[in-house]
Design goal:
This protein has about 120 residues and is α+β, with helices and mostly antiparallel strands. The chain contains four helices and six strands; from the N terminus they run H-E-E-H-E-E-E-H-H-E. It has one domain: Beta Polymerase, domain 2 (2-Layer Sandwich), CATH 3.30.460. Helices cover about 35% and strands about 30% of the residues. It has a six-stranded mixed β-sheet. Strand 3 and strand 4 (about 80-85) form a beta hairpin. Helix 1 (about 5-20) crosses helix 2 (about 50-65). The chain is globular.
């Protein structure tokens, strides 16, 4: 079966899955013109390690139901920053403290912001 959805549509599916698990401060950045590593970054936060893990699990399950699987996942051991690499888009799920420390939004300040929601 060929998946006809665009990369952007798949990225928005990940955003919805993160939202379903009550992720906070969700950002969708279009980074494809700035780097070859991905077209989009999804950045979001959880309040504690358990919620960070739940967000990652929710994204993996919801996208898996759509036959969209990560190439690799890193950071699940301590659940402070989980990175899910879906090739054309990358999901960054942070504990609030790590997000404040690494400031990915600042590093990718030139990226087009497609979504920026608080809460």
């Amino acid at each position: 079966m060929v998946d006809e959805r665009s990369v952007k549509e798949k990225a928005y599916l990940a955003v919805e899955a993160a939202r379903d698990k009550k992720a906070e401060d969700i950002r969708l950045l279009e980074v494809g013109k700035l780097t070859i590593i991905a077209d989009y970054f999804i950045i979001c936060s959880g309040n504690n390690e358990r919620q960070v893990e739940a967000i990652a699990r929710g994204i993996k399950e919801d996208l898996g139901e759509e036959e969209i699987f990560p190439l690799r996942t890193a950071g699940r051991e301590d659940a402070r920053w989980i990175l899910m690499d879906y090739a054309d888009f990358i999901v960054h799920i942070f504990h609030h403290e790590e997000r404040d420390f690494y400031e990915l939004e600042r590093l990718w300040a030139d990226a087009k912001r497609l979504l920026a929601e608080q809460g």
